[in-house]
Amino acid sequence: MLHKVKLDIKSLICIFLFFIMFGLSSCEKKNYALVENGVINCNYYIDHNVSFLGDSITELSNDSNGFIQLLDEHFHFKKVNNYGISGTTVSGASRVNAFYTDSRTNVIDIQTNLLFVFGGINDCVNKLEIGNLSILNKNTDTFIGAYNVLIDKLLNSIEGCKIVLISPHYVDVENIGLYSNAVNSVAELNKLDCINLYKDSNISESDYDDYTIDGVHLNYDGNLEVAKCIAKYLIESVPSNQIIENNA
User: Fold this and answer.
1) What's the mean pLDDT in 208-234?
2) Which of 118, 175, 238, 243 to pair with 232, CA 20 to 30 A apart?
């Protein structure tokens, strides 16, 4: 009986160690998968407060396999804030919790150094008007007008914050490309950077099922793909004298 107990304990220890090693290996793969060509810098952003304003795609990314968590595991931000709310739009004067409204902009941490704005899918789903492409367009019933108002509010309320727009990736919704192009255009109008997921990610019309659970919301591979695109932008934004090369 004693001999049997010893074997059981030994087996349990082996199983326990296996899962520890498997878990560490998985984390390493996740981290390394975010970057290419061996260029890695996990130190530059450790003093950055990073915020994400978005819809359900953003809200759900707090999961351990979500793109925000994947990014935080790699870059070790000082603080991460997720301001994603499911079902919300950028525009719509009568829509509850639209991005440009005070209920969204007033809650964002004023210590934020880097703010990503990721929206547009629900505007497309609800067929909200894109509007006139002009910096003077402040009509919040239109996508472009509401985005302009949102950007003005953010720039005035969060001093020194860098704002980066993220255009929607491909989703199984008619005309999503028009809204993605509008985000890129708004970024140009306001002289902001934009991460173009519609163009630069691998989530496309031919294989979106591989990256989503329902044609819209991201599975693990979709979250990893979005994280890769954001990580690429973050690494390219690091000053050249602070890049760390991984030669391993």
Assistant:
1) 96
2) 175
